[in-house]
Specification:
Layout: H1 10-34, H2 48-74, H3 79-103, H4 113-127, H5 134-147, H6 176-196, H7 199-202, H8 210-216, H9 219-241
Helix pairs in contact: 1-2, 1-8, 1-9, 2-4, 2-6, 3-4, 4-6, 5-6
Length: 242
């Protein structure tokens, strides 16, 4: 069944909205901790609870991105429209780097989730015609960093690959491997669902979940705005308390 049968994929949008809400809650807790408002003080980069939550949030977000690519391709989205959307993501990635450099000059974000998406979206679109072969490609992308790493990739020009022996000092690090495997899983799953169970992505939502779908349709805008708002409000609160 073709994508063109449906006006909106509300269930997919709601799943993306869930990832956004979960991410916002994580970032708000992270910011509280940064300003010393979360007691006892946490260690987000070392505490398993923080690491697991971050991993699950990022995994859900990238899986949804893969599903979205499957939907776009099924709707016969052309390259011009793809490049317009890609340019929005690229500009936002540059703004994230600039903003993080101003706030954290020694650990600014040089390859975070939006930077990774810029690479992954192009690669996913080129690989999408492989269809069934996407499953083993996804498995390979997920497994490779666990099977082989090398110090040569530790330099700033190659750390984006993910084949590093030590994590770079940065506020957000989303390397191509293994995370591209998660997006490929979403793309492969989306192609299968559109061919066999399209209603799982486009079916009606209960009324309480409809705000999630609305939020999911504006995920990039929310992503770009929520941290400056959280950070600014908490900074004002700390100054007020002093």
């Amino acid at each position: 069944m073709s994508r063109r049968v449906f006006d909106r994929f509300d269930r997919l949008d709601a799943l993306r909205g869930l990832a956004i809400v979960w991410m916002a809650a994580y970032h708000f807790a992270f910011d509280l901790n940064h300003f010393g408002l979360l007691q006892p003080r946490q260690a987000p980069n070392a505490d398993p609870l923080w690491i697991v939550n971050r991993t699950l949030i990022l995994g859900l977000f990238l899986f949804c991105a893969g599903l979205g690519q499957a939907v776009a391709l099924d709707a016969a989205q052309g390259w011009p429209r793809f490049w317009r959307r890609w340019a929005q993501v690229a500009v936002c990635a540059a703004l994230v780097s600039l903003g993080s450099w101003l706030a954290f000059p020694y650990s600014w974000i040089h390859f975070g989730v939006l930077h990774a998406l810029c690479v992954m979206l192009i690669a996913a679109r080129l690989l999408a015609p492989l269809r069934a072969a996407l499953w083993p490609l996804a498995a390979a992308a997920l497994a490779l960093p666990a099977l082989w790493r090398h110090e040569i990739f530790n330099g700033s020009w190659l750390s984006w690959t993910g084949l590093v022996t030590r994590k770079p000092i940065t506020e957000d690090y989303v390397p191509l491997l293994p995370w591209f495997g998660v997006l490929l899983l979403g793309l492969a799953a989306g192609q299968w669902l559109l061919a066999h169970r399209p209603q799982w992505l486009a079916g009606a939502l209960p009324r309480p979940l409809q705000p999630l779908a609305a939020l999911g349709r504006w995920s990039l805008t929310f992503y770009m705005l929520h941290q400056p708002v959280f950070f600014g409000l908490l900074m004002l609160w700390v100054q007020f308390k002093r």
